[in-house]
Amino acid sequence: MAGLKLVNVNKVYPNGFHAVHDMNLDIQDNEFIVFVGPSGCGKSTALRMIAGLEEITSGEIYIEDRLVNDVSPKDRDIAMVFQNYALYPHMTNYENMAFGLKLRNMPKKEIDQRVQNAADILGLQELLKNKPKELSGGQRQRIALGRAIVRDPKVFLMDEPLSNLDAKLRVQTRAEISKLHHRLKTTFIYVTHDQTEAMTMGTRIVVLKDGHVMQVDTPTNLYEKP
Ligand code: ADP
Ligand code: ADP
């Protein structure tokens, strides 16, 4: 049934700070969900718990109906795109995209098919032999997207992926990510503090404040109703 489900999820950091309170979400397979809210409201913490990068204090997280509380990040069928791209500078762009698959011992031929396919989708064919430092910020972000796509995950997680780009590139890349979502028809969870980004990209928006979910609704219902 559902792509992703959170049931009464809480995060209390070791210093006692309660960063996420009783979060409940039921997300379908092809939704584009945006977590929006001011800095410090718990967006990253929530995303990192879904990714398995942050332990949850209580509650349950299900990905494709599988309880993943005790499943390691690499076995969760998710791929995360970071704001700083986190590309390896000594590797070519091809190797950067192939790396996660190599670690999983995927046959070379299948790795190659997946990297070529992702490069086609993102228009990266000409850049595969280059290294990340030879690329523009926007191109680097596309390599980082490619590295996520090759994994063929059930859920894409993106934490402020455009915050290092200038305004013009941000608008362009925003459109590219939306297109990617249409094409892949899989669950995207996207974190931003930018309301315009939330409104233009999300099929549903989760508004967070002080670690609480304040509203969950479509952009139209949230922003256009009087
Ligand atoms: P956002 O992504 O919305 O900016 P975060 O999820 O990063 O918010 O942080 C939520 C709150 O949790 C913030 O007040 C932050 O200071 C606090 N926080 C984040 N990481 C830790 C940590 N390791 N220990 C204690 N508090 C933390
Ligand atoms: P992914 O599947 O997200 O590409 P891998 O399974 O290839 O990641 O990760 C192997 C190791 O490489 C991770 O434990 C981490 O140390 C490092 N790594 C890979 N991708 C990233 C990233 N985007 N940011 C930081 N470290 C990463």
From TrEMBL:
Q: What keywords appear on the UniProt entry?
A: ATP-binding, Nucleotide-binding, Transport
Which domain of life does this protein belong to?
A: Bacteria
Q: Name one GO molecular function term.
A: ATP binding
The chain positions of domain ABC transporter read 4-226
**What protein is this chain from?**
Sn-glycerol-3-phosphate ABC transporter ATP-binding protein UgpC
Full-length numbering of the shown residues = 1 to 226 of 369
